[in-house]
Each structure stands twice: as structure tokens, then as C-alpha cells.
Amino acid sequence: MNFAPFAAAAWLFVIGLYGVVSSQHLVRTVLSLTVVQSSTYLVLLGVGYRLGGKAPIVADIPTKAKLVDPVVQVLVLTDVVIEATVLALLLALVIQAHKRFGSVDPADLRLLRN
Amino acid sequence: MSRRVRLLLFACGGPGLLAVLLIGLHGLPAFGDFHGAYGLVVDHVEPGQRRATDIVTALNFDLRAFDTLGEEFILFASVSGVALLLRHLRDEDEEVESSRSVADHRFAGASDALRVLSLVLIPLLVSLGVYLALHGALTPGGGFQAGVVLAAGPLAILLAGRYLALKRVAPEWMLEAGDAAGATAYALIGLGGLIFAAVYLKNFLPLGTSGHLLSAGMMPLNSIAVGLEVAGAFLLTWTEFLDQDLLVTREEL
Amino acid sequence: MTALQAAALIVVVVAGTAIVFVPDPLRQTLVLSMFGLALTLLFFVFQAPDVALSELVVGSVGMPVIILAALRKIATHTAIREEEERKEGGE
User: Fold this and answer.
1) Which of B163, B187, B219, C58 sees the fewest Cβ atoms within 10 Å?
2) By residue range, what is the domain housing residue B105?
3) Each residue of B138-150: pLDDT tens digit?
4) What letter would DSSP give residue B29?
5) Interface of B with C (CB under 8 A)
6) Does A113 map to a domain?
7) pTM (2 decimals)?
């Protein structure tokens, strides 16, 4: 039972990778990448959790209380916001690829020749 | 590489990857059994030293402020990439379709209930965003959360079916200026640390008492700068993508 | 590991698997929205409210708006291309 978050993260990683590999539409590839990203969030937060720990906000609990690790939360927090913009960049590339090659099937993309 | 070859490769490698991942993750300490030294020391030390009650925001904007500088410039770079790609595309499209008329930009079917709801949502979201930015050091919140909530406010105008009104409320030059101003302000506040405390991004403003609004030194300022940048970045991304659809449309086929 | 955490984990895994196996990109976007909501709940019960706040907005509004706009643009371009091919075929 103590291994469950890490097992879930490994499963999400592999299933997201399967989505990337088997997709026939570039937007599906990008969405499966989201699943792969969230597996990393699970691993990070799973590492930092302490049994019986509270959220690292000492506004209303005594400062000596047992708290979960705040450092991994910093990593995941900035990651969530930034990956959204990186995925926007990927989707802009997908639109550009569709304009250039006329299809969104990854098998139809060729090398750029001009 | 055709789909069948890809699937074949994945069938060979995928289960092996899953096995290796599970074995590797077994090496981590059990869930709930965290003994990293850095996190525990920060939990112990931070409320006395920096007087901020939200330890995550304190880490983000003070103890590890340099990492946040890097992260916000990643954000800036990817939004610049999106703007570059999509504006180039839009210029090409406008050459090709200059003879076509621009259709009406209302979403047919934005019912009155939706419009009233978004009218109520806009001030709520904007005030929530400002609250999160200012109180980042005291309660859950901070620059990044405030930025995305603040950006969702004007987006509710889009929900009401008035995309052109959104363009008037948040024109492109203003979004770009806000984005750049936020990024620059963060770097400049760091310079203040360099000037007044001899270390870049060191907390040089008075720390005050914990729990009060004007406490924790430069953390609220940093929060506001990052919030401005994130809000500008998200709104810019959204308007770039929506411009692609709604301003360059075609006549009836 | 409390019951709430276990339940949230199960919902996240089911939603993540569903994203990969739903056939249509449009429906995938809606499942992505639900996945974001499930992740928010999971982050909250893992005692990380700051992370939950940012994931809430990004997952429910941030990403789906961009994806829907991109899908619509691709559909428009496909329609324009087909119209032009039809015109050239007719000439």
C-alpha cells in the first residue's frame, strides 16, 4: 500500500508513452504528453509526503508541527504552469505542420525540403 | 516511421520500461517516510527567519528565488515562441485570404444565462487573483497561482461570446507590455538585493511581523511581478490561438 | 495512506488511462479537463494546496482553451484546402 503512488506514476508514464507512440493525430500526441508529465508530479509529491504531516503553511498551526516537504511542492508548482505554455508552443508547431504538410498524421510528416 | 513499426518497437520496449521503472521506484523510501534534510531544516527555520507563514511561497520567492528567475524566463521564452509562430502564420493567411470577408465574431448560442454568469465571474476572478498575489506569503497563494487566476478573468468575456470586447479590454500591446514588465521587475528587484544587501535576490526589505500583510520583505513584490508576467503570458497565448480562428475566417463555402 | 488518498489516486489513474484510449481529440480535451480536476483533488489530499490551486486553473481552463482553438484551426484549414482542391478540379 505504501508503494501505490509510485506504481500509479509508473503506469501513467508508460500509458502516456503508449499514447504518444500509437497516435495518428498530432494533437493526440500532445495530449498524451500531458499524461506523462503528470506522472512526474505524482513521483515528486509522493517522495515529499510525511505520514501525519500537514500542509507547509504555519498561519494557523504551531510552527513546530509536523509538515510535509515544501521543496518538492515548489518544483511541481512552477512546473504545472510552465508546462502549459510549453504545450501551447507544441500545438503552435502542430498548426504550422498541418499548414505545411496538409495532414496531422505523424506518419505523413516528411523532412522539410526547400 | 510507420505506425506498425512504432507499435512493434513499443511492444518490445514498453513492458521492459515498466519493469525497470517499478524496480527503480522501489528504491525510494516508502511513501510517507520522508527524511530529506533540506526540507526539514527549512520547515524548522523559515518562520523565524523570514516571517512568512506560507513556506512554499517563501521558498519560491526568497530562499530559492534564483530558480524562479530561471523558470519565469522559460515561460517568457515559450510564449515568445508561440507569438512568433502564430503571427507569422497569421500574416501568411491574411495574404491568401485578403479577399474573404471577416465574419461576425459572436458565438451563436451564448445564452443569456452564460452571459450573466460570466459578468459575475469577471470581478470575482480578478479580485481573487489580486488577493492571491498580495497574500502569497501568508496563505496558500503566490505569484504563479495569482497569475493564472488573473488571466482567467478576462477569458470569461470570451465565454460570454464577445471576443472583440476581450480584444478591446486586453489589447495585444498591453499584454506584451505587462508580460515584459513583470519579467523585468523580478530581475530588477533582485538587483535591489545586490545593491542593498550585497547578494543578488537577497531579501533586503524590512521583514515585519509574521501574519501581517506588509511582512516578509520583498516576497509580495516578487509575487506581484511574477503574477503580472504569468497573466500576460497566458492571455497572450490565448488571444494568439483564438485570433487564428476568429479573425481570419472565410465566406460561406 | 488514507482512504481519500487511495480514492483520488484511483480516479487519477482511470482518467489518465481514459485520455489515451478515447478516439476523438475533441472528446480527449474534455477528459483532460476531468483529469485536471482529479489531479487537483489528489494534490489537495497530499497536503499541497499551492500546487492544487495552479493545477485547477491550468487543467480546467488553461489547456482546454488552447487545444480547442488549435483543433478548430486545423479543421478550418482542412476545409479551406478541400474547397481549393475542388475549385482546381472544376477548372
Assistant:
1) B187
2) 36-246
3) 888 888 999 999 9
4) P
5) 31-32, 54, 56-57, 132, 140-142, 144-145, 148-149, 151-152, 155, 158, 234, 237-238, 241-242, 244-245, 249-250, 253
6) no
7) 0.88
